[in-house]
Design brief:
Helices cover 45% and strands 6% of the residues. The chain is mainly α and 469 residues long. It has 3 domains: 18-92, no CATH class; 117-192; 233-428, Orthogonal Bundle (hpI Integrase, Chain A), CATH 1.10.443.10. The strands form 3 sheets. A 3-stranded antiparallel β-sheet has the order 1-2-3. It has a 3-stranded antiparallel β-sheet with strand order 4-5-8.
Length: 469
């Protein structure tokens, strides 16, 4: 149906395709029910010019699309929209040129049609899947990159140069460079397989400047989880500021206070946000006074995976210390149950955590950090991930802790070899992260002296018993 065929409420009839003007062009808007694999409603450019009489072409196209959709020919097995079938229909309706048809010469049959861009991309993704982490495959190749490619095709069609220009105008240069590089790789692979004759994106990624300008103000909506600068004090809160943040959360309303345990845990351990959310009760070793970090939680895919560097690391939790008391204050659950949960009893959503941290105007949430900056208790905004930076700089610069010990706790240096990590891990679990290194050394020295004294006394007792015999 075209735009005029609506219910009295102004909405399209349930299950019906609507073709109407949208953002300056005539688009086909599909019902969500037939495409459960798509995150948003599917809207596609039709190639119909927005001039008088467009409704007739729209009606004819709508009727054809409705039949194909109800036969599930427009839906892929995974619930996503079938781009290839849609293009075939537009070509059949003469709304889009058939770029795959090559005119025959010398009375010979034309060659087989070449693959479309989307077919080349799908083949490339299948080829790369085994070599990619599942999160990278799902979030980047079948997520961010695929959405960008589809949008550019809807807006400008399959002209590589126009696609490049449109992408550069709508996405970051680093993202566009990566997408165009992947497309070029995809076409090189297709050429090797004799599926296409030329690389349409050869050289398209060149000369794209990805250098970022220095930012005076950190965008509060851009949460960057990177360990490249964990020893940079300017990227960390002071320990006094960390205590002010915790005081504010603990004394605030229930919406903010609900995150107190998680944020304090992050300040006390320096773990990554996903690692904190992924902690289960089975990871708390009360007997050996330690916490085991062995997994990470991906908020978008709602899955648990191994830690960033595929290791299992131990973190000391001295009995009756601050960290011990924090975890004891949380009602203990089943072994495979999360320590930190939202009010619905599920894993905490990092998007919700970020909104509480930096504020969210739509819900009139002022945000923890902006409010503390206004009160003069915190000097600058840093993302919630930087609780990790705060712990690491506090341990090394404030408490004088050896960097190797802190790395064993947090594993922030990918350059450190696995052997070095194993060598110091045992000693690291015997170190109290809540005491200054100097005091730790003093206590260790006193303990060694006491052990030596006890050894001498035992030797004396053994000698007296031997003399009595």
């Amino acid at each position: 149906m075209v735009n005029s065929s609506k219910t009295p409420t102004g909405k399209a009839k349930k299950g019906q395709i609507v073709i109407r003007p949208d953002s300056g062009s005539i688009k086909a808007c599909f019902p969500r029910t037939h495409f459960p694999g798509e995150p948003n409603q599917v809207k596609k450019a039709t190639g119909i010019s927005n001039i008088d009489g467009w409704q007739d072409k729209a009606t004819s196209l709508q009727q054809r699309l409705q039949i194909e959709m109800e036969d599930w020919k427009l839906t892929n097995p995974d619930g996503t929209f079938n781009e290839n079938k849609y293009r075939e229909i537009l070509v059949d309706k003469k709304l889009r040129p058939d770029l795959k048809i090559v005119e025959s010469t010398n009375n010979q049959l034309p060659p087989k049609p070449e693959l479309s861009l989307m077919e080349v991309w799908d083949m490339y993704c299948s080829f790369r899947r085994e070599s990619l982490a599942e999160t990278v495959y799902q979030l980047k190749f079948k997520g961010e990159y695929l959405r960008a490619i589809k949008k550019s095709l809807d807006e400008v069609g399959e002209c590589p140069l126009e696609m490049r220009n449109w992408l550069l105008g709508n996405y970051s240069h680093s993202t566009v460079k990566r997408i165009l590089s992947c497309l070029s790789e995809a076409y090189r692979l297709a050429i090797k397989q004799k599926m296409v004759n030329q690389n349409l994106f050869d050289g398209m990624a060149e000369d794209i400047n990805t250098k970022k300008k220095s930012e005076r103000i950190i965008d509060q909506n851009k949460e960057i989880e990177s360990d490249d600068d964990v020893l940079d004090k300017s990227k960390a809160y002071t320990w006094d500021e960390a205590q002010e943040i915790l005081k504010y959360i603990q004394s605030n309303d229930s919406r903010v206070k609900h995150y107190y345990n998680l944020i304090k845990f992050k300040f006390l351990t320096g773990c990554r946000t996903g690692e904190a959310i992924a902690i289960w009760w089975t990871d708390i070793d009360w007997g050996r006074e330690r916490i085991i970090f062995r997994r990470n939680y991906n908020n978008r895919l709602k899955i648990y995976k191994s830690t960033k560097n595929d290791t299992t690391r131990m973190f000391p939790m001295p009995k009756d210390g601050e960290l011990w008391q924090l975890l004891k204050s949380i009602p203990q659950g089943e072994p495979n149950e999360n320590l930190f949960k939202n009010k619905a009893g599920k894993a905490i959503n990092t998007d919700s955590l970020q909104r509480v941290w930096h504020g969210y105007e739509a819900s009139r949430n002022k945000g923890i950090i902006p409010e503390l900056i206004k009160q003069g208790k915190v000097k600058k905004y840093l993302p919630c991930y930087n609780t990790r930076h705060t712990f690491i700089t506090h341990q090394i610069f404030d408490l004088g802790r050896d960097a190797a010990i802190v790395n064993a706790w947090c594993e922030h240096s990918e350059e450190m070899s696995a052997k070095h990590y194993r060598d110091i891990a045992k000693y690291a679990t015997q170190t109290n992260p809540e005491l200054p290194a100097s005091q730790q050394v003093q206590q260790q020295s006193e303990l060694d002296l006491l052990k030596e004294e006890l050894r001498k006394q035992q030797e004396l007792i053994d000698k007296l018993l031997q003399d009595q015999k």
